[in-house]
Amino acid sequence: xxxxxxxxxxxxxxxxxxxxxxxxxxxxxxxxxxxxxxxxxxxxxxxxxxxxxxxxxxxxxxxxxxxxxxxxxxxxxxxxxxxxxxxxxxxxxxxxxxxxxxxxxxxxxxxxxxxxxxxxxxxxxxxxxxxxxxxxx
Length: 137
Hints:
Blueprint: E1 10-15, E2 18-23, H1 28-46, H2 56-136
Antiparallel strand pairs: 1-2
């Protein structure tokens, strides 16, 4: 919801062709947005054949059911999105862990390469030393 303005502003809105005075803890723009949504939903329901023949109570119940269905669908979508987000977060964490492990393996391998190069150099020096001794004898 929008930030609470100072006091409770009163706002005239039109819903289903009638003027209503609203007052609440939300901004005027937010309350107008809600009123317009309800008005549009009523207009949408009026396009249903025989809607006008229904009793006012039944029309109000139908409006409530439609709005509640939209709310529940939105909540379900939010729940699915939240679950998907959590799964993605877990996958990212797992991949980061894998990356760290692979980096550690690479570091270990690089240290071994350096160690083996040093040993190879030492062995090459030893071979040269032995060959030189052999030639001198």
